[in-house]
């Protein structure tokens, strides 16, 4: 912790402003200059310093971080979330979602035809591929990710081949290899999502299928819960795309959307996550290397504060389960999934 604290102290010497690109004055999706502030928030999960603004395009409805993180900022805010300090926790969380991954594979299976080779982009430690093989035992899964987790996935046999790097840089050498490419909660993290869709088209054979799953910014929960809605996930989520925008982009790239799914893409976490984020915001901070050090009394107060919130968390979790069967009709689904065929 002492080593990490010194490392973060040096990086923060110039302040968080060094982590951002210049402010944009037009929509990155449609180019319209009719944009305005939609949400101002902080890092509610890691509590790293900085304030983050999400703007909304009044022409197409696209939502985007503005100003956007630069390469240095992305490295700073991602560090210790998926790797190092956060690696074990995140690996355990994703590893515990086996049933969710199987349901995802079952939902798209009827639309994919005779898929043989599948590339999962943003695969992390390959947990989806491992679970999906129980649903699609004849499919060979490869994984691609910027993090070292993809190398772990290959070593553990969760993917046949693990490619480490950026999708847009590697797509050329993967051209036409795959019957299916999946971008599960990946596009919203990308600085240039349209280029990622082009890379997916390059990697697919003619007639192959692209599966895209992203948070739904048109969910009523986004308005009802405000900054406590988990899918805002600042500063990691750079773009949030209404479903009409993504359908249009896929059509422009030569895809035909064959399925649009909302209810099966919904995760039953909105209320319990909102309560947890609110508790985290109110409780004393944990001992983290980008914050001032804390002692045992501080940690005891934090534990007591979080323990006091357990009844609220339990009630919120039960309500999430009760509302889920009606989420589609009520417009509360927090994500959507598109399956598109490359023509």
UniProtKB/TrEMBL annotation:
Give the domain of life: Bacteria
- InterPro entries in the record, alphabetically? SAM-dependent_MTases_sf
Output the GO biological process annotations, alphabetical, semicolon-separated.
Answer: antibiotic biosynthetic process; methylation
User: What does the UniProt keyword field contain?
Assistant: Methyltransferase, Transferase
- The name under which this protein is listed is Class I SAM-dependent methyltransferase
**Per its UniProt record, what PANTHER family does this chain match?**
TRANS-ACONITATE 2-METHYLTRANSFERASE-RELATED
Gene Ontology molecular function, alphabetical: methyltransferase activity
Q: Which Gene3D superfamilies match?
A: Vaccinia Virus protein VP39 (3.40.50.150)
Organism per entry? Streptomyces tirandamycinicus
Write one Pfam family the protein is assigned to.
Methyltransf_23
């Amino acid at each position: 912790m002492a080593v990490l604290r010194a490392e973060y102290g040096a990086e923060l010497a110039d302040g968080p402003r060094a982590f951002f690109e210049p402010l944009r004055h037009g929509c990155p999706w449609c180019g319209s200059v009719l944009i305005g502030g939609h949400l101002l928030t902080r890092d509610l999960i890691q509590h790293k310093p900085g304030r983050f603004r999400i703007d909304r395009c009044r022409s197409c409805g696209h939502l985007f971080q503005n100003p956007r993180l630069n390469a240095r900022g992305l490295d700073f805010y991602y560090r210790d979330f998926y790797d190092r300090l956060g690696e074990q926790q995140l690996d355990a969380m994703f590893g515990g979602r086996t049933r969710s991954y199987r349901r995802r594979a079952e939902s798209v299976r009827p639309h994919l035809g005779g898929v043989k080779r599948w590339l999962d982009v943003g695969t992390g430690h390959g947990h989806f591929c491992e679970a999906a093989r129980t649903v699609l035992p004849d499919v060979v899964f490869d994984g691609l990710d910027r993090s070292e987790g993809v190398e772990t996935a290959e070593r553990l046999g969760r993917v046949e081949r693990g490619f480490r790097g950026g999708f847009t840089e590697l797509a050329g050498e993967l051209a036409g290899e795959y019957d299916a490419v999946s971008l599960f909660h990946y596009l919203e993290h990308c600085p240039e999502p349209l280029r990622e869709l082009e890379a997916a088209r390059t990697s697919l054979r003619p007639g192959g299928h692209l599966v895209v799953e992203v948070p739904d910014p048109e969910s009523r929960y986004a308005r009802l819960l405000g900054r406590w809605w988990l899918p805002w996930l600042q500063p990691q989520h750079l773009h949030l795309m209404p479903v009409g925008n993504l359908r249009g982009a896929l059509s422009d790239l030569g895809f035909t959307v064959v399925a649009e799914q909302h209810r099966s893409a919904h995760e039953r976490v909105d209320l319990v996550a909102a309560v947890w984020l609110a508790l985290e915001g109110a409780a004393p901070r944990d001992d983290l290397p980008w914050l001032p050090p804390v002692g045992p009394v501080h940690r005891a107060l934090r534990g007591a504060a979080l323990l006091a919130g357990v009844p609220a968390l339990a009630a919120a979790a039960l309500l999430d389960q009760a509302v889920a069967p009606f989420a589609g009709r009520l417009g509360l689904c927090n994500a959507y999934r598109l399956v598109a065929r490359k023509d």
